Amino acid sequence: SSELTQDPTVSVALGQTVRIPCQGDSLRSFYASWYQQKPGQAPVLVIYGNNNRPSGIPDRFSGSSSGNTASLTITGAQAEDEADYYCNSRGNSGNHVIFGGGTKLTVL
Amino acid sequence: VDLVESGGGLVQPGRSLRLSCAASGFTFDDHAMHWIRQVPGKGLEWVSFISWNSGTLAYADSVKGRFTISRDNAKNSLYLHMNSLRAEDTALYYCARDRGSRSVTVNVFDNWGQGTLVSVSS
């Protein structure tokens, strides 16, 4: 199916490591990208392709993939990382694109 | 890179609206472009894609047959023509740049506008 599944909420203690998973059949064929969205702001690309970070994104953000699951990992989470995180990939049909439902990350 | 959407507003069901996205700070015709929408408080939904030369278009099933994407490379502008609007089309509409190049579309959105709000209600 052309769907990406994310856990709705995840929490992490300040300074600890958190992994945010994204599952879907399309991830067996296509890389996931990850976006961070803070309240009232547009999404920001944080990870794309084979664990690539755009300039300006801290190196505590990393991506990985195995089978039908892609993961965003934040190593040493900071208070400013509290946000919604969305994964996306190409769908299995044509030029369609699909998004996961998003994960709300709380930094405790 | 700057993307500025406009054209949103309140519209009655069944009516039409045209959104625009003005691009600057990069070579517009080097990139495919996308429209993505978000119902306030909800998740992101990809809406439509257009290749750099308008040769390839794609639409989400939810808007296919009602929405038309287009671009004017001479004006560095992207458009979304929305017909037969429904209440479920109410959302913040973002334009986003594809990170790829003319030769490859990667469906990675490396720059986003701030969005324009469309409200469909009688």
Structural notes for this entry:
The complex is a heterodimer of chains A (108) and B (122). Chain A is mainly β and 108 residues long. Chain A contains no helices and ten strands. Chain B is mainly β. Chain B is built from no helices and eleven strands. Chain B has strands spanning 2-6, 9-11, 17-24, 33-38, 44-50, 57-59, 67-72, 77-82, 91-98, 109-112, 116-120. In chain B, a hairpin with a 6-residue loop joins strand 5 and strand 6. The mean pLDDT of chain B is 96. The A-B interface holds A 30, 33, 35, 37, 42-45, 48-49, 54, 86, 88-90, 94-102 and B 34, 36, 43-46, 49, 56, 58, 60, 94, 99, 105-110, 112-115.
Largest sheet of chain B: 7 strands, mixed
Order of helices and strands of chain A: EEEEEEEEEE
From the spread of the alpha carbons, the general shape of chain A counts as globular
Total number of helical segments of chain A?
Answer: 0
* Spatial gap, N to C terminus of chain B: 37 Å
Structural class of chain A: mainly beta
**Mean pLDDT over all positions of chain A:** 95
Rough shape of chain B? globular
**How many E strands of chain A?**
10
Which sheet architecture does the biggest sheet of chain A show? 6 strands, mixed
Strand content of chain A: over 45%
Largest interface in this structure: A-B, 24 and 22 residues
Tell me the structural class of chain B.
mainly beta
Radius of gyration of chain B: 13 Å
Spell out the helices and strands of chain B N to C: EEEEEEEEEEE
Low-confidence stretches of chain A: none
Secondary structure blueprint with pairings:
The complex is a heterodimer of chains A (108) and B (122).
Chain A: E1 5-6, E2 9-12, E3 18-23, E4 33-37, E5 44-47, E6 61-66, E7 69-74, E8 83-90, E9 97-99, E10 103-107
Parallel strand pairs in A: 2-10
Antiparallel strand pairs in A: 1-3, 3-7, 4-5, 4-8, 6-7, 8-9, 8-10
Chain B: E1 2-6, E2 9-11, E3 17-24, E4 33-38, E5 44-50, E6 57-59, E7 67-72, E8 77-82, E9 91-98, E10 109-112, E11 116-120
